[in-house]
Amino acid sequence: MSIAKLALEDGTVFTGRAFGAPGEKLGEVVFNTSLAGYQEILSDPSYKGQIVTMTYPMIGNYGTTAADEESHGVQAEGFIVRELTRVPSNFRSHRSLDTYLKASNVTGLEGIDTRALVRHLRTRGAMAGILSSVELDDATLVARAKAHGGMAGKDYVKEVVPEDAFVWDRGCDNLSKHVLPARPILKHVVAIDYGMKWNILRCLVQVGCKVTVVPGTWSAERVLAYDPDGIFLSNGPGDPAALGYAVDTVRRLLGKKPVFGICLGHQLIGQALGASTFKLKFGHRGANQPVFNELNRTVEITTQNHGFAVDPASLPDSVEVTHRNLNDGTCEGIRHRDLPVFSVQYHPEAAAGPHDSGYLFEEFRTMLG
């Protein structure tokens, strides 16, 4: 079993055992507090440019399966766990986590004190790092991590968008189908893909929408040429402040059709309405984030994956905050008082995670008329 190292830009180095594919990857080092759902996390395009650490100590025990994919393979730059289960025990499993990472040419690191790493990131904040099983000199690795520059100002959307438009017609075949009963397909939605999880598309179909997916680099004119009943804005990776082209497109769409945004889509709507975004110290990543719904005064347990947030103080009077994070009070949802526009920072489609917020897809479908 070979050695692998994680070196952070502040000079901290962790040494453990390599798994997955041999190699070396730079990225922002972050942590996720989910107990399960590691395949959905790894295949979420929002993790492009990031090395993910799991806080739960044992990972890989139920293997991987094609049904749990949220995109075409692993999107995260690297994966760090305390203890890897190399022989999974699950009737659904097609292959082990180790084999899954090898097939995607992604390097993993196990056997380090992930509690110490997570405490360090909570104290110092998410930072650039390098995960390597080929170069093992500490000074060289730290120098490369320092040169990376972090996530701020980075546009990773162009690395994960689809090459062209396509139609998605598959509804939910997992727990979501019990939360969202299937409805007849009566409406057409254009989903702008900035790095979208597939379960979002399943949920849109489930509530009765034909879905045409288009790249996040498209102009408003190309989107509106489909004359859809509504427009969906997806999640995605990187710094929302670096996506001026996407903000301009969203600004030109608002008021033309009903719009619903999730995660990066939420941040783009905020910017298009005149607000600014800022980087969180270590972000919100996990399937156990409590959110307070200001509209009905209830609490939702949510799945989240973001390192940036909309500054509510910068929102115009025409926009109200609808949801807040109960851990730090940050903005988790907004809606326009006059236009058919709303968005949330978290992931109501779950995959993996709780289904408390699945009602938002029904609200969007109702908004379409």
Describe the structure.
Helix content is 23%, strand content 32%. The chain has two domains: 3-148, 3-Layer(bba) Sandwich (Glucose Oxidase, domain 1); 157-367, Rossmann fold (3-Layer(aba) Sandwich). 52% of the residues are buried. The termini are far apart. The protein has helices at 38-42, 97-103, 114-124, 138-148, 157-160, 176-179, 198-206, 220-224, 244-253, 264-272, 359-367, and strands at 3-8, 13-20, 24-32, 50-54, 58-59, 78-81, 83-84, 107-110, 127-132, 166-168, 187-193, 209-215, 230-233, 259-262, 277-293, 298-310, 319-325, 331-336, 341-344. By secondary structure, it is of the alpha/beta class. The mean pLDDT is 96. The strands form three sheets. It has a ten-stranded mixed beta sheet with strand order 10-12-11-13-14-19-18-17-15-16, with helices on both faces.
Task: Quickly list its features.
369 residues; alpha/beta; Glucose Oxidase, domain 1; ten-stranded mixed beta sheet; seven-stranded mixed β-barrel; 11 helices; 19 strands; 23% helix; 32% strand
Task: Give the topology.
Blueprint: E1 3-8, E2 13-20, E3 24-32, H1 38-42, E4 50-54, E5 58-59, E6 78-81, E7 83-84, H2 97-103, E8 107-110, H3 114-124, E9 127-132, H4 138-148, H5 157-160, E10 166-168, H6 176-179, E11 187-193, H7 198-206, E12 209-215, H8 220-224, E13 230-233, H9 244-253, E14 259-262, H10 264-272, E15 277-293, E16 298-310, E17 319-325, E18 331-336, E19 341-344, H11 359-367
Parallel strand pairs: 3-4, 4-6, 5-7, 6-8, 11-12, 11-13, 13-14, 14-19
Antiparallel strand pairs: 1-2, 1-9, 2-8, 3-9, 10-12, 15-16, 15-17, 17-18, 18-19
Helix pairs in contact: 9-10
